[in-house]
Design brief:
Length: 380
């Protein structure tokens, strides 16, 4: 019995020593693999979270609007260099032909007849205008007309069936509403950016004469000008026009012409070839409380007339510098923008009554409305 116990103890000692050596040199030999399958628990989102209305609303709007947004290339003849007319300089520099220039922008097809809306500054001075559709088709566009005072231009292309965008209701927009900006920024191809309506009725920006911009933080960059600003349904609510930027790129402040104003301009251009506006020949200025107090005008509200064009409609009607216009054709005016818009809406050769205050007296003056002269082109 003693011998068997000795053999057992020696065997256990050898086995423990072997296990120690294996655990030290080959520990993976001692790992036991489970015979049961290994499972990983995950939480799968329900189908509605990835394919429901919340995720497809903007993509559906983009699909509706994108086919009607086009890229616009405006070819301009280059300017002659300064040495072109100097024989001495031409001897050294040679007789070089002016290099052509190309401007890039966007446009929106708004009728089956091929009418497009874009910006005036996109096609200003162009000799040829090329339009490329989202489906790859290209065509030369005809300039129907342009209105620098709202920065709107109308083009027309002759192609087969055209995708047309539906016009929305810009007047129904509210601050905070989601919008998409669609265009061809930096000529990288059609691009959609999203944001919200940041403000409405922006003016006094110095971008055009008649300003009533929609402000948005949807990214708008060079090349987006003339493109579409659409609502969550994919209907057109504005024409992207300009950005506020210190670098040339988007800084989250973009501006679009409301579609109702763009439509009015388009219809006037298609009908008359240009936009015809009323004009009376005055220089207006906002009447602030401080300015009214300094002039001794009391609490009157209206628009101060600082200058009257000699022999113009207002001068012939008896208006004078210092008059404060309070109404135009029974429409109250409180700011310079309201006065310009009210006068512009009058038909030339018609007669309108202006209500004004002069030296504490209220007067009604009848003015024979003239036609607003075309604006002087300036560098944008």
């Amino acid at each position: 019995m003693h011998r068997l116990w000795l053999i057992f103890s020696q065997a256990v000692t050898v086995l423990v020593a072997a296990l120690f050596v294996v655990a030290t040199l080959k520990p993976e030999w001692l790992r036991v693999r489970s015979l049961l399958p290994v499972t990983v628990s995950v939480v799968q989102a329900p189908p509605s979270a990835t394919s429901g209305p919340a995720s497809t609303g903007f993509s559906a709007a983009a699909r509706v609007a994108m086919p009607a947004v086009v890229s616009v290339t405006a070819q301009r003849t280059g300017q002659r260099p300064p040495q072109a007319d100097d024989p001495a300089l031409r001897f050294f520099h040679g007789d070089r032909a002016p290099a052509p220039q190309a401007g890039l922008g966007s446009g929106v097809i708004i009728s089956p007849e091929g009418y497009l809306l874009t910006n005036h500054h996109v096609i200003a001075g162009a000799d040829e205008i090329e339009v490329r559709l989202a489906d790859g088709r290209e065509a030369r566009a005809r300039l129907v007309g342009t209105d620098p005072e709202t920065d709107i231009a109308v083009l027309q292309v002759q192609l087969g069936p055209l995708p047309v965008i539906a016009l929305g209701n810009a007047a129904a927009l509210q601050v905070g509403d989601p919008v998409l900006a669609i265009g061809n920024p930096f000529n990288v191809g059609q691009t959609v950016t999203g944001g919200i309506v940041s403000a409405l009725g922006r003016n006094r920006l110095g971008l055009s004469t008649f300003e009533n911009f929609i402000q948005t933080d949807a990214a708008i960059n060079p090349g987006n000008s003339g493109g579409a600003l659409v609502d969550a349904r994919g209907t057109l609510v504005g024409i992207n026009t300009a950005i506020y930027s210190e670098s040339g790129g988007s800084m989250g402040i973009g501006f679009a012409v409301p579609v109702d104003l763009a439509r009015e301009v388009m219809e006037a251009i298609v009908r008359d070839g240009r936009v015809i506006r009323g004009w009376i020949g005055v220089e207006p200025r906002d009447l602030t409380p401080d300015l009214a107090a300094s002039l001794g005008l009391g609490s009157v509200s209206g628009v101060l007339i600082t200058g009257v064009l000699q022999n113009g409609p207002a001068a012939q009607a008896g208006l004078r510098p210092g008059d404060v216009v309070t109404q135009v054709a029974a429409q109250s005016v409180q700011t310079t923008e309201q006065l310009l818009k009210a006068v512009a809406s009058l038909k030339p050769q018609s007669r309108a009554v202006l209500s004004l205050q002069r030296a504490g007296q209220i007067l009604n003056v009848q003015v024979s409305v003239g036609q607003r002269p075309p604006p002087t082109e300036n560098t944008r």
